[in-house]
Amino acid sequence: MTELVEAQAAPAGNLEARFVIRPFALDTDLPRLVRLRNEIEAVDQVGEGVSEGELRVRITAPDRDSARDRWVVEEPGVPDRLIADGVTWKDTHAPDA
Fold this sequence. Notes:
single chain, 97 residues, 3-stranded antiparallel sheet, 5 helices
């Protein structure tokens, strides 16, 4: 993982020219996201490894819309490999929901 970070430490510029940042696609990205999360866990070792089944339950919860709430970043030149993901949503139980 450290090698990837060092390899991508390029001068500031157009990030879209170097990285593909796109919405999450459940069917194709779920296994890729599991791999990414488990690779992170292998380095961090905080006990947060995940299986595909566990992550699918979290991502497909009724108050989530993974296609709208979640995004991923592909490794440059390797679209089958994710190097980052993000998620944001408004909690439906929040007072200002």
